[in-house]
């Protein structure tokens, strides 16, 4: 899966709130060189001279990534000149198993087939004719597929909404050509009129966000001084903003704003943020912090009351799908600077691996 990185750019994100089973069966090739070794073990040495050992046919084995459990990857086959009945066994570090009579090999319930993670698995099949055991090494190749073609409609809707938020689509957003996210942890300094009650609200919101960063080195934390901070949260009136952040004041002075965030980026990597809050409502901080993390306004507002709606009230909050999207976007598999198509492929892979 190729990733195309966006040329250098420096953007200011300014935000506000007003309120298959498609399996390749085995193919046997008498000339193929798939195996690496054959080992014979005679159970009864006195019969060694008269018994003909089983002989494996060489074969290739492959399966599409994301194939379900109990999918067939083909048959191991050995012949025996004595016409002895052959029993098959299989050894592998992953969950694949073999039918001892037919030699059919299938995937187990604990095997996650993901080309982007591992593209092949070695395994060994043993053939026993009642007297001699012959081992043969094989390799299972994982086929890369276009994951988007096997998504359900519900899964496709998740990706569409993720693209809406991360590429800032919709009439209340200024759209982006590449996604933006933080490349290092956010360290937030609290400034302005910060009561103990509001500090508790901030800590609660940070804890809720941090619970979503489960596959990432990213986190949000509070720091005691502005020198070590890359995020500054100011609680105060709009008029007070003019004295500390004149550029932000120019953006908000003529609007009906309760909060605002300005977050610069370098090569699509968010590097710092300034957040102004004038209302202690918890969802307002969730909203502006969501913008600071790289997410635009939501279009799920009439019935679902997303925390990222341009107009919010105490009824708005994280939607379950938004918790998933935040977790996906801040996973280690998603980098900053992806196009919509690139993100679609990676999100499809993430979602299918969670099924």
UniProtKB/TrEMBL annotation:
<dbReference type="InterPro" id="IPR002126">
    <property type="entry name" value="Cadherin-like_dom"/>
</dbReference>
<feature type="region of interest" description="Disordered">
    <location>
        <begin position="26"/>
        <end position="78"/>
    </location>
</feature>
<protein>
    <recommendedName>
        <fullName>Cadherin domain-containing protein</fullName>
    </recommendedName>
</protein>
<dbReference type="InterPro" id="IPR024079">
    <property type="entry name" value="MetalloPept_cat_dom_sf"/>
</dbReference>
<dbReference type="InterPro" id="IPR015919">
    <property type="entry name" value="Cadherin-like_sf"/>
</dbReference>
<dbReference type="Pfam" id="PF00028">
    <property type="entry name" value="Cadherin"/>
</dbReference>
<feature type="compositionally biased region" description="Polar residues">
    <location>
        <begin position="59"/>
        <end position="74"/>
    </location>
</feature>
<feature type="domain" description="Cadherin">
    <location>
        <begin position="62"/>
        <end position="159"/>
    </location>
</feature>
């Amino acid at each position: 899966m190729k990733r195309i990185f966006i040329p250098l750019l420096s953007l200011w994100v300014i935000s506000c709130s007003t309120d298959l089973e498609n399996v390749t069966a085995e193919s046997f090739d008498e000339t193929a060189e798939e195996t690496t070794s054959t080992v014979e073990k005679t159970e009864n040495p006195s019969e060694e001279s008269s018994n003909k050992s089983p002989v494996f046919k060489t074969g290739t084995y492959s399966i599409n990534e994301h194939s379900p459990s109990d999918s067939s990857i083909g048959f191991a086959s050995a012949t025996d000149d004595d016409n002895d009945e052959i029993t098959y066994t299989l050894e592998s570090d992953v969950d694949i198993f073999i039918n001892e009579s037919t030699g059919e090999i299938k995937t187990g319930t604990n095997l996650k087939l993901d080309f982007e993670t591992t593209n092949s698995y070695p395994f060994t099949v043993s053939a026993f004719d009642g007297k001699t055991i012959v081992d043969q090494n094989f390799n299972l190749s994982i086929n890369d597929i276009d994951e988007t073609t096997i998504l359900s409609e519900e899964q496709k809707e998740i990706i569409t909404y993720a693209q809406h938020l991360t590429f800032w689509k919709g009439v209340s957003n200024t759209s982006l050509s590449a996604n933006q996210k933080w490349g290092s942890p956010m360290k937030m300094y609290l400034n302005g009129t910060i009561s103990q009650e509001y500090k508790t609200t901030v800590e609660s919101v940070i804890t809720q966000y941090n619970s979503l960063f489960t596959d990432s080195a990213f986190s949000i934390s509070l720091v005691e001084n502005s020198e070590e901070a890359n995020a500054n949260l100011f609680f105060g009136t709009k008029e007070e903003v003019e004295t500390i952040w004149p550029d932000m004041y120019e953006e908000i002075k003529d609007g009906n704003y309760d909060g605002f965030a300005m977050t610069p980026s370098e090569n699509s990597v968010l590097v710092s943020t300034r957040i102004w809050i004038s209302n202690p409502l918890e969802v307002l901080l969730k909203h502006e912090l969501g913008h600071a993390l790289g997410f635009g306004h939501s279009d799920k507002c009439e019935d679902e009351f997303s925390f990222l709606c341009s107009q919010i009230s105490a009824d708005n909050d994280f939607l379950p799908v938004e918790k998933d999207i935040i977790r996906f976007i801040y996973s280690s598999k998603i980098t900053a600077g992806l196009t919509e198509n690139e993100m679609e492929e990676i999100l499809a892979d993430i979602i299918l691996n969670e099924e």
